[in-house]
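User: My instructor asked us to take a sequence, write out its structure as tokens, and then describe one feature of it. I'm not sure where to start. Here is the sequence I was given:
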Amino acid sequence: MDILLIPIAYLIGSVSFAVVVSKCMRLPDPYSYGSGNPGATNVLRTGNKRAAVLTLLGDALKGFVAVVLARLILGDDALTSSLNSWILCGVVVAVFLGHLFPLFHGFKGGKGVATACGILFGINWILGLATLATWIIVAKFMRYSSLAALAAAVFGPIYFVFLFGFHPMGLALTVVCLLLVWRHRSNIRNLMNGTESRIGSKDSKASKQAGNSPS
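Assistant: Let's start with the prediction itself. The structure tokens for your sequence are:
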């Protein structure tokens, strides 16, 4: 019955907090402005920082909750036990796919940065903190959220192997890394062309719409 944790994780991941928060705070639909991506960075383009923070926390929390719930049910050895570790790997990939292709939002999801961060904290707080620190350092100095996300995605699996050695979870995190990089393919092109938006830049259309909407 533990295998049911995988579809449950997908359903948890399918809740898009960018959409939920925007509706609750009467902000524009995140699909309708900026990059069209239902994520915290795009929500920030409305100028509503509180909405962006809530979106970030919500998307991270669902990744964290799915992994921690699975670990509580599977037991403390879920990271290393042969069978349970593969089920936990399935949970990790499923909750991430839920965010990318949400059942509740027409399979049009975000890019998975916050959810991936929540997953890493659910696995181990040191792993999550190291990867988050990587994102913060790159974002602070380069001012590109996408570049910071790509750097953190690459280093996440490396940090896991460094902390725990070679286990199936390292493979699952590599899959998450590759999916995250794939979802950022347009950002990679923009970075190469010098047209990528920097952190804090506002989309004029979104800002105008947000200004007409109560927060």
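For the description part of your assignment, you could build on this observation: The radius of gyration is 17 Å. Try explaining in your own words what that tells you about the chain.
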